[in-house]
Design brief:
By secondary structure, the chain is of the alpha/beta class. It contains seven helices and five strands, in the order αββαβααββααα. 42% of the residues lie in helices and 14% in strands. The protein has a five-stranded mixed sheet with strand order 3-2-1-4-5, with helices on both faces. The termini are far apart.
C-alpha cells in the first residue's frame, strides 16, 4: 500500500510532468568506495517510456545494466553524467562530493528540468529548481532508477580503465569497494593517487605508503 506521503509526492510530480514533461531523477554510485570518483547521473525520461527491466541498479545483473544503458540514453529526453574525484572528496567529504556530482550531472543535461527527484535524504538546492529527496527512490521512480544504472555503469567503466595500470588492487572486479582483497593489497602495496586519503583504508591505524 502506498503511503499518503509518497502518494502526495507522486501526485505533485505527475502535475509537473503533465505540464512540462521535464522531471529529472538523479543518483550516484561509488560513495562507499576506497578509491576512484563518486559518479552521478541525471535523467529526464518521457512519460511513455517502457523499459520493463529498469530497476535500482543494485537489483540488476551486470548484463542487464549494460543492456539498459544504451536504451536509457536513446529514449531519454536528456541525460548527464559527472564525476567528482578523490582529491575533491578528501577536501569536502563524501556527502558533499556526492551532492556536487549530482549538481554537475544536472548541469550536463541539455534541457533544464522543472523538478528534481533525488535518491536518498540529502541534497542542496540546484539553482532555483524545486526538488524532493526520496529514500530508496531508485526502487520507486524510473528516472532515478535510470540515473542509478548510468552512474553505476560509467563508474565501473572508469575503474576498469584505471585498474589496468594498478592490477594488484583488482579494480576490474571490486571497482574500488572495500573488499578484503582490496584492503590486503593496500596493506601490501600502499595506496595510489586514486585512493581516498580521508577514508579509513585499513581497519587498523598503521602507516600507509603512497605510490
Amino acid at each position: 500500500m502506498v503511503s499518503s506521503n509518497i502518494l502526495n509526492v507522486i501526485l505533485f510530480m505527475l502535475n509537473v510532468q503533465l505540464t512540462s514533461n521535464l522531471e529529472a531523477g538523479t543518483d550516484e554510485a561509488g560513495r562507499g568506495c576506497l578509491a576512484g570518483p563518486v559518479t552521478a547521473a541525471a535523467v529526464i525520461l518521457p512519460l511513455t517510456i517502457q523499459l520493463p527491466l529498469l530497476n535500482d541498479s543494485k537489483k540488476l545483473t551486470k548484463k542487464q545494466r549494460y543492456e539498459l544503458r544504451p536504451l536509457i540514453e536513446k529514449y531519454s529526453i536528456s541525460f548527464g553524467i559527472a564525476n567528482v574525484f578523490q582529491e575533491e572528496i578528501d577536501k569536502i567529504n563524501i556527502l558533499n562530493a556526492s551532492i556536487l556530482a549530482m549538481h554537475y550531472a544536472l548541469e550536463n543535461l541539455n534541457k533544464s528540468p522543472k523538478f528534481i527527484i533525488v535518491d536518498g535524504n540529502h541534497f542542496h538546492r540546484f539553482k532555483k529548481i524545486p526538488h524532493k529527496c526520496i529514500v530508496k527512490g531508485d526502487q520507486k521512480f524510473l528516472n532515478i532508477a535510470a540515473a542509478s544504472v548510468l552512474a553505476k555503469t560509467y563508474r565501473d567503466d572508469y575503474m576498469k580503465k584505471i585498474g589496468t595500470k594498478f592490477p594488484q588492487y583488482n579494480w576490474q572486479k571490486n571497482k574500488g569497494y572495500p573488499t578484503q582483497s582490496h584492503r590486503a593489497a593496500i596493506e601490501k602495496f600502499g595506496v595510489t593517487k586514486h585512493h581516498r586519503k580521508s577514508f579509513k583504508l585499513l581497519p587498523s591505524q598503521i602507516e600507509i605508503s603512497f605510490k
